[in-house]
Structure formats: structure tokens, C-alpha cells
Amino acid sequence: MTSWKRDFASGLVVLGPILITLYLLYWLYGIIAGVTPELILDADVLRPLIPDGAFEGAARTREQVAQFLRVVVVLTVLIILTLSMGYLMRTTIGGLVERVLDNVANRVPGLRVVYNASKMAAETAFGEQESLQKPVKIETWNGARMTAFKTGKTADDGREVLFLPTSPNITTGFVIEIETDRITELDEDVEDALTRVLSAGFGDADRGMDAGISIDVVDERVTQHLESDSDQPSEAND
């Protein structure tokens, strides 16, 4: 691999995740700004702070600032509403409300599948039960081991139900039922296991000096010089 290719690959490893994250944040900001009503904050309210004669394009600047403030207000209200709902779910009234919502959603044929799948995914990702986020290893064939995750469920015959994701796409995989003695418990959290699966085994959650794939930085000119010297026949001693 030439020097410029190595430099480009190293820069892409660093800048790639940053650019993708910024793009996703920009995309999410555009969605929230597009559905946020203007009545939350009118741009004319900012006229005393940004008057028309202050600079060119003051009206557009007021609209952009007002749009940003509307997004901040929507996110703040959403966070407060989520925290309030979470606190309510820990009470008796919250449990009653959840049962009513489940009953209503399960009566609608189309909504039932989407509602239950979304609820299960949210409970798996953010639930407080450790069994939902416990990574383990299982022996598949010929001594090979694969990373799986406990679901907290058991089959009728007592076997434990595990989710075996594919790599690097963890949205697909297999739901398997396996005996408990064939499961190897791991002393690691879900982030380390997911990093290993998502990176196809190359990633390291600690991001230490040895993380990732090592890149050979030997100068090619030195390598070519050594190869040319080795091709020359050695002179006979007098």
C-alpha cells in the first residue's frame, strides 16, 4: 500500500465516524425544525435584539435563530415529558395506564405488531433488567464460539432463549434455545460485546493504543533499497 493510501485510510478512520455523526444530527435537526410550529416562537420577537438595519440579512438571521430556539424548546419539552412519564410508570397509576394502552394497542391488528415490536426493542435497549443485556458465548460447531445475548426468557423445557446477532449488521440474527450448561458467562458489559460484533471483531471498546487494525508505516524507499541490495551478487573474497 502506497504512502498516500495509508494516510487517506488513517484519516478516513478518524473523520468517517465524526462526519456520519454530524450528518445524522443535522438530519434529525431538520426533521424537528420542519415539524415545529412557528407559534412557539415568532421571529418578530427577536426584532429588538436583531433589528433590520443592524446588518444585511437581519430578517433571515432572526428566522434562523428563532428556528433554533424552537427546536431547543421542543427537545426540552420532550425530555421533561419523557422523564415525567418514566416517573409515572413507577407508580400504581402508571401501571394501570400502561395496561390500558397495551390493551387498546393489541386490539388494532396493524398497530399491534408495530407497538409490541417497538416496545420490546425499547425494553431490550433501555430496560433495567440485566438479563436483557447480558452477553454470553456459546459453542456452535467444531469448538467455535459465538457471541450471543440473553433475553431473560426460557423455553417450556427449561432451555434459555438467546439472541445470536449477525456481524456487522446486528438487526438480523437468530433466536435460539440452548441448554444452560452450554452457555459461557462473560465478565464484560453489553457495550464491549456490541463493539466486537459491530466491528466484525476488529474493534475495541477501550480504544487503546492496540485497538483497531495495525498499519504498516515502513518507508517503501527503504524497503526497495534493501530489496535491491539483496538482489546484487556478493563479491568473492580475495
Distance separating the two termini: 42 Å
Q: What's the order of the H and E elements?
A: HHHHEEEEEHH
Radius of gyration: 28 Å
The number of helices is: 6
SS elements, strand count: 5
Mean pLDDT over the residues: 76
**Helical coverage, percent range:** 40-55%
Catalogue the unreliable spans.
Answer: 208-220, 234-238
Indicate the structural class. Answer: alpha+beta
How large is the share of residues in beta strands?
5-15%
Quick one: overall form? flat
Largest sheet properties: 5 strands, antiparallel
Could you give the order of strands across the largest sheet?
4-3-2-1-5
Question: Summary?
Answer:
It contains six helices and five strands, in the order ααααβββββαα.
Give an overview in words.
The chain is α+β, with helices and mostly antiparallel strands. The chain is 50% helix and 13% strand. The protein is built from six helices and five strands, in the order ααααβββββαα. It has helices at residues 3-35, 58-89, 92-107, 109-126, 190-198, 220-231; strands spanning 135-139, 145-154, 160-165, 173-178, 183-185. Strands 4-3-2-1-5 form a five-stranded antiparallel sheet, with helices on one face. α2 packs across α3 and α3 (92-107) crosses α4 (109-126). It is flat. The model is unreliable at 208-220 and 234-238 (pLDDT under 50).
Secondary structure elements and pairings:
Elements: H1 3-35, H2 58-89, H3 92-107, H4 109-126, E1 135-139, E2 145-154, E3 160-165, E4 173-178, E5 183-185, H5 190-198, H6 220-231
Antiparallel strand pairs: 1-2, 1-5, 2-3, 3-4
